[in-house]
Design goal:
The protein is α/β, with parallel strands linked by helices. It is about 30% helix and about 20% strand. The strands form 8 sheets. The chain has an 8-stranded mixed sheet, sandwiched between helices. The chain has a 5-stranded mixed sheet with strand order 21-20-24-22-23, covered by helices on one side. Strands 1-2 form a two-stranded antiparallel ribbon. Helix 6 packs across helix 7 and helix 6 (about 265-275) runs antiparallel to helix 10.
């Protein structure tokens, strides 16, 4: 259900009159709209009807009346008349900034995930809680929390369903929607960094069988499909966001714990709530299809203009969806910075608008389906610095099954995609990967001391004993194209399948073995030295075993980032080209 069909009335909900009193640090009910602070901080946009909101406190309630949903126990030393001793007042002031931040965390989709907060949105708890749409994903534990020392993954889905005021004109208004924008948001186990991986909508993949819970609580099984566009994993055939979660799990090999989904209104309303988002374009834009018009340089956009910015496909790059993804990542990074700025965090009115707009446009799974659970999520993410949030796109190549002059889809890069998946699986951050790679190399060097060959000097025959079709050839392509090991040969299948990957070498090939072990992340146990020296042109023998995870994916140690992977940190301002 979209933000414009939730039964709002024109009258102002009394719950919206709860504002922050800077003297006490509490949210207080101000029904007198002539009061200076109340009037300045009361949102002017129509809200849900009063019947859907928490019952307001009586007009005669004291100025520091407890907020709905919050139990406040009066301390014995507090005077009955409600006067607060100076020492108590100072304690409340210290907590005021934390109370301001929480409304940010009830605000949404990607920005919701990325910003961080600290306390519950007590004043508007019931109102905002009722805004949320919740989907019970079959097979997911709705009561699972966020375990300390464990990484977790949230799937952020932007649907192109044309619901909501003013959205039918975008075309395809009767469509149930697709997974138009999908971002897998990985949060590290130490909560210091995150990776936001965009998945192209036009990528060919397999959509597995999934189950959805119907309105009458029965469970419906939806058959899977092979070699279809990723975006049909939502909406088509009755698929719900749980089906997108399962598709991503099969694709990446990581467990998706929760999802957040929003429609077009999320972009329009949230950008308006924060007073606009700063974007940058290298040249002036005038796109008649998306109706985006921007001068060269920086602009602040919101509402319909912000939606046009993230939807346009004809203003940047080669007009592909892959270039649109880059623009969306730049937009989200800028939105994160705006939401973390003092302009937002110190403005209760903006925070209130943002909270209401985001929850109204947000659909989530039952595992994070109320503000208490979202508050727990906020606590897990509050320490992540924007410089340690990296946006990247799943590496893809043109679909080889399509003729060169009629290419419309892509497929995962057979070498680089598994490398990036391995980084998620091993909880390796894109923002710290260089340091982790160096640590791994230092450890390997300490283990295997000696002289080193260059990549061009390494000679190796590659055998496939992994049981994975094409493993030897993909490894050969990676060695030759990415690592410069040109004297390598695909020897096809090994005589029998191997449990472990091994590298057999002669004593006079030890330096070559060390070089190849560094490249491939081979453990010391994988190295099998011989007893006789090899001839000048005799190669080493590499047998890929069942522990093989993909070309360029280390057998052990930190995963390596794919070569030439494009990424952008959320703290960087990038101009769209």
């Amino acid at each position: 259900m979209d933000a414009h069909s939730r039964g709002r009335a024109d009258e102002i909900d009394p719950a919206d009159q709860w504002v922050l009193n800077p003297q006490t640090g509490n949210y207080e009910l101000r029904l007198d709209r002539s009061a200076g602070q109340s009037q300045a901080q009361t949102p002017s946009r129509p809200r849900r009807s009063a019947s859907a909101a928490p019952a307001p406190a009586p007009a005669s309630a004291p100025a520091d009346a407890p907020v709905p949903g919050q139990r406040r126990r009066r301390a014995p030393e507090e005077p009955a008349g409600g006067q607060i001793p100076p020492q108590r007042r100072r304690k409340r002031k210290q907590g005021a900034s934390r109370k301001k931040k929480v409304l940010l965390w009830t605000g949404g989709t990607m920005a919701f995930v990325l910003v961080g907060g600290a306390a519950g949105a007590y004043a508007l708890y019931n109102k905002l809680n009722n805004n949320l749409d919740v989907v019970d994903v079959v097979g997911k534990d709705s009561g699972a929390g966020f375990a300390k020392g464990k990484a977790f993954n949230i799937l952020v889905i932007g649907t192109d369903k044309r619901t909501g005021e003013g959205n039918a004109g975008y075309g395809d208004k009767n469509s149930p929607g697709h997974a138009d924008t999908t971002i897998l948001f990985h949060v590290s186990k130490d909560r210091t960094n995150a990776t936001a991986l965009s998945i192209p909508r036009d990528m060919k993949t397999d959509v597995p069988e999934c189950q959805t819970r119907q309105a009458d609580k029965t469970i419906k099984t939806i058959p899977g499909e092979t070699d279809v566009r990723f975006n049909v994993s939502l909406g088509q055939g009755g698929r719900d966001p749980g089906c997108v979660m399962r598709t991503v799990e099969e694709l990446t090999g990581v467990t998706v714990d929760h999802f957040m989904m929003a429609d077009f209104n999320a972009v329009k309303e949230m950008t308006t709530a924060v007073g606009g988002v700063k974007v940058c374009v290298e040249k002036a834009v005038n796109d008649p299809k998306s109706h985006l018009k921007l001068p060269a340089g920086e602009s602040v956009i919101q509402g319909e203009q912000a939606l046009a910015f993230v939807r346009t496909r004809h203003s940047f790059g080669n007009e592909s969806d892959l270039d649109r993804i880059k623009v969306q990542q730049q937009f989200l990074s800028s939105m994160i910075r705006q939401m973390k700025s003092d302009d937002t965090l110190t403005d209760p009115g903006k925070l209130l608008d943002l909270a209401n707009a985001a929850t109204s446009a947000l659909t989530v799974d039952s595992g994070i389906g109320d503000l208490t659970k979202l508050q727990a999520l906020a606590g897990e993410l509050s320490s992540i610095d924007t410089k340690n949030i990296a946006f990247a796109t799943l590496p893809v190549i043109d679909n080889p099954d399509e003729p060169p002059n009629r290419r419309a889809t892509v497929v995962p890069d057979p070498v680089k995609a598994p490398q990036l998946f391995a980084m998620l699986q091993s909880d390796t951050s894109l923002t710290e990967v260089k340091k982790k790679q160096q640590d791994a190399k230092n450890a390997q060097a300490a283990l295997l001391k000696g002289t080193r060959s260059t990549a061009a000097e390494v000679r190796v025959d590659v055998y496939n004993g992994s049981g994975i079709t094409g493993a030897a050839q993909s490894t050969l392509n990676w060695l030759q194209n990415d690592e410069g090991v040109n004297r390598s040969t695909n020897k096809s299948n090994a005589p029998e399948q191997a449990a472990k990957t091994t590298l057999t070498y002669a004593p006079n090939q030890a330096d070559q073995a060390r070089k190849l072990a560094d490249m491939m992340g081979l453990p010391a146990t994988a190295l099998k030295p011989g007893t006789q020296d090899a001839g000048e042109r005799e190669p080493m023998t590499l047998v890929l075993g069942a522990d093989f995870k993909g070309a360029g994916v280390p057998i052990t140690g930190p995963a390596k980032a794919p070569k030439d992977l494009e990424k952008v940190a959320a703290d960087k301002q990038v101009c769209a080209k």
